[in-house]
Design a protein that fits this description.
By secondary structure, the chain is mostly helical. Helices cover 79% and strands 0% of the residues. The two termini are 28 Å apart.
Length: 150
């Protein structure tokens, strides 16, 4: 645990400014939570290029946050279904076993539509909150670091 703390302190003391760190973390989180697999690196690269933020840090953070995608897929899908008035969704092995390939593709497309709507409604405010909280906490960490008592 001590090694992790030391590594994080060294990482925070790099030349990136406070808002850049907060932006890298929130953009990485936002793209990792996107429910469609395979687009994360392309999306992060494009967004980092547009916003002129550190691409290496952002891609590294997406790899770190990748397990969150699996944890949030079903809550995003259920939220999207609720918002679109679809009611309760059934996720079970029995339903997936009964579907053939054509029905499975239609079923998954339907689920990804709900997941996309849920992602927009949950991930956007969540990542904005993360950005502002990190911006203030990193700023206070660096401010404490500059005040040295001899």
């Amino acid at each position: 645990m001590r090694k992790l703390q030391t590594y994080l302190k060294q990482l925070l003391n790099t030349k990136l400014e406070t808002h850049e760190w907060a932006l890298c973390i929130s953009i990485a989180l936002f793209t990792v939570l996107f429910p469609i697999y395979g687009l994360t690196t392309i999306a992060v690269t494009y967004i980092a290029y547009l916003l002129k933020i550190n691409l290496a840090v952002t891609i590294g953070l997406t790899w770190l946050f990748e397990p969150l995608r699996f944890a949030f897929f079903i809550p995003f899908t259920k939220t999207g279904a609720y918002l679109l008035g679809e009611g309760e969704l059934l996720f079970s092995i029995d339903i997936l076993k009964e579907l053939n390939f054509g029905n499975l593709f239609a079923f998954l497309t339907h689920q990804f539509k709900f997941a996309f709507v849920g992602w927009l409604c949950i991930a956007t405010p969540l990542c904005l909150l993360v950005y502002y909280l990190l911006k203030s906490s990193i700023f206070s960490f660096r401010k404490q670091k500059t005040v040295k008592i001899i």
